[in-house]
Amino acid sequence: MSSLRQKWITAPLLNWIKKVLPPISDTEREAMEAGEVWWDAQLLSGKPDWDQLLDMGPPELTEAEQAFVDGPVEELCQMVDDWKISYEDHDISPEIWEFLKKNRFFGIIIPEEFGGLGFSPTAHAQIVTKISTRSTSVGVTVMVPNSLGPGELLMAHGTDEQKKHYLPRLADGRDIPCFGLTSPEAGSDAAAMVDSGVVCYQEYNGEKTLGMRVNWHKRYITLGPVATVLGLAFKLYDPDHILGDTEELGITVALVPTDTPGVTIGQRHIPAMQAFMNGPNWGKDVFIPMDWIIGGQENIGRGWHMLMSALAAGRGISLPSLSTGGAKLAARTTGAYSHIREQFGIPIGKFEGVQRRLAEIAAIAYVLDSAHKTTTRALDKGLKPAVVSAIMKAHATFGLRQAVNDAMDIHAGKAIIDGPLNYLGNVYRAVPVAITVEGANILTRSLMIFGQGAIRCHPYLLQEMEAATNPDKDEGVKELDALLPKHALFQLKTFCRAVFHGWTGGLFASSPRGVGEAAKYYRQMNRYSAVLTLVTEISLLSLGGELKRKEMISARLGDVLSELYLMSSTLKRFKDDGSPQQDRPLLEFAMRAGFHNIEVSLIEVFHNFPIRFIGELMQFLTMPWGHSIRAASDRQARACANLIMVPSETRDRLTKGVFPGNPGDGVDIVEQAFLSSHGTEAIREKMKKGGLRALNDNAIDQALSDNLISEEEAEKIRKTSELVNKAIQVDHFESLPTTSPERGSEDTLQ
Question: Which residues contact 652 (CB under 8 A, 6 or more apart)?
Fold first, then answer.
């Protein structure tokens, strides 16, 4: 019976799978094999095991890590003057560079045995987050050596000799690293790079040495202009068959000291007026000995896999940390400014249009911080969730853009006049950089998140694709035959679950124990997990390889998966915090926004599905009532906005890690005015009852004269008036700076 089934059912099905399933290139396969699946697989299972997520507990710092955050990180933030760095010097001062080296900021992830700090991903993330609330340029400078850089690659793939030589030097700053991946011709398509090396023998240090003669042109290389060691990715060829019969050996990664003959470091770029070092470099017939390959000669051709493995972790920490810090800064300062800044006699935070924006800023900060914590907690446990890291990179930077845009709108003129008092302008300018690097968001959203997630997270699809591509067809048929009954049962369960929850609005979906009133959100999460799983199955079956080219469909399905991850993290964070009642408006607003976004994305998939009747069928099966969950109401938005306009534990919990500023800084001035204003609200009310709404000396004198307030109260209100006056001021300059950085074409050797 089994042989008949294989002959008449499985074998034809195998041939069909070969035709319809999306083809996978070697680089795509290596990207998918790098890292691992985690909670994303649960979300695409149709029935997430919530205990797996909730039992992880909250991220925590060790005593040493907390001491570092409270000590050197705090001291560094006090040293930093972002206006001076970005607009006067266009550079980080030598004093800050020395402080970073002395305190091993470049060795956060390097083990203690090699002279590094040996900190956890959570500590790494919190350090970068806090620094980024003070200066994006300093945050990036610390972030890059601890993210996709030679340090992480060496720890994972380096030889013992390479580790012993380089890691101590990287940890204490004797060597400054950079990584050269992007080339002008390739951009996000690393497989298209033209940078190449040829295996050869050459005299090196007086001896005939086996190595590679490499030529390259790299650009957009962060820390490139100041780096002493370059991690270099290039394609290696062996036309003379020195190593064997294969000529094209694949992408390879080597460590190259920047003083090596033939290496040229170009002039610096200025990325969106940010002062962190960035620039191009070239290599002309540079001889690289074989033992400079990270991991040695045996790692020839494994460079792409090595890079993707590093990104699977680093992409979930670096830019999400910067984005979380920026969103928190926007929430704290905008909430304060909305309270102290008055128009028409009332705080601007009382206007409903402003309140909606405030609520969105607060909710974004809450969600990003939640997802940031959940992701670093997974990394703490040794996981390398590649799809989750891609979700975090793309949606954290998207979230930062919305939060900062809204904050800029609310601050209005305060945020568009540059100067030391402007704490938002530089973050605003840095957003496009974050969105562009480490994989452009457009491609990450439209190609990677769902494209990789649907295949990697599916319990059987990748195995079926491997069976279909097995060169031994008979063996492939046997493998597929064993998978088909399991896949069919999975499809049946998914169909029943998605249709039932779709038609009943998730009312009867399960929820984990001990989550209290939040159970309703878990039920909806289970509902949409089942819906996404069924829609994925139908899309793959009906479109096959064509789905890969339907990037708008893929992007929307990726958005659903991303929202499910962000919302899962938000629910976890709420539980980890002890389910505080005062935080419920944040949770309510965030969850409703997420569900609304999911429904919009799904309906757009149905309406734009290439096979129209299948799109209509999917909507009939899973969302027969159309939009069933409304976005947060105006009442909920007001409640959420008010949380960041009053001093409270919720506000402090939401914006924990934001550097409060040195005395006299823009952030500090606004915060002091905010606290003073709240401390004198009762006095203001007395004045308002007497018809005095203004906060100036004339109004205060009149209030005294009318016996509305006492002398002591008048003194307090004058102090508040001074602070508020100072907080709403902007900088002005006698003249524009007359100097600017030297300019030159990156494509011309200077």
Answer: none
pTM: 0.94
Rounded-to-integer distance, Cα 724 and Cα 102, Å:
40
Please name the amino acid found at residue 311: L
Which residues fall within 8 angstroms of residue 648, CB to CB, at 6 or more apart? 582
Asked if 223 and 291 touch (Cβ cutoff 8 Å), the reply is: no
Distance, in Å, from the CA atom of 371 to the CA atom of 743, rounded to the nearest integer, reads 40
Per the structure block, which two tokens stand in for 462? 């990748």
SS3 per-residue string spanning 449-490: HHHHHHHHHCCCHHHHHHHHCCCCHHHHHHHHHHHHHHHHHH
Contacts of 127 (CB under 8 A, 6+ apart): 68, 69, 73, 105, 108, 119, 142
Q: Token digits for 745?
A: 């074409």
Instruction: Evaluate whether 373 touches 58 at the Cβ level (below 8 Å).
Output: yes
CA distances from 532 to 458, 616, 618 (A): 12, 15, 10
Q: Are 720 and 677 in contact (CB under 8 A)?
A: yes
- What's the rounded mean pLDDT across residues 125-153? 92
Q: Give the pair of three-digit tokens for residue 324.
A: 């979380």
Across the strands, what pairs with 428?
Answer: none
What is the SS3 assignment for 79-103? HCCHHHHHHHHCCCCHHHHHHHHHC
Q: How far apart are CA 740 and CA 90, in angstroms?
A: 8
Please name which of 544, 673, 671 lies closest in space to residue 13, comparing C-alpha atoms: 544
The CA-CA-CA angle for residues 714, 717, 721, to 5°, reads: 135
Give tens-digit pLDDT for 153-193: 999 899 999 999 999 999 999 999 999 888 887 766 666 78
The structure tokens 């040996």 sit at: 118
Residues 386/308, Cβ–Cβ less than 8 Å: yes
Query: Six-digit token pair at 21?
Result: 């399933």
Out of 28, 30, 438, 479, the active site residue is 438
Collapsing DSSP to helix, strand or coil, 539 comes out as helix
pLDDT the model gives residue 20:
67
Q: Give the pLDDT band of residue 344 (cuts 50, 70, 90).
A: confident
List, for residues 258-293, the tens digit of each pLDDT value. 999 999 999 999 999 999 999 999 999 999 999 999
Buried b / exposed e along 574-611 (16+ C-beta atoms within 10 A): bbbeeeeeebbbbbbbbbbbbbbbbbbbbbebbeebee
Q: What's the CA gap between 254 and 299, in Å, rounded?
A: 10
User: Is 392:448 a contact under the CB 8 Å cutoff?
Assistant: no
Burial (CB count within 10 angstroms: exposed 0-12, middle 13-18, buried 19+), residue 52: exposed
638-661: average pLDDT: 96
CA distance 324 to 317: 10
Q: Is 438 a catalytic residue?
A: yes
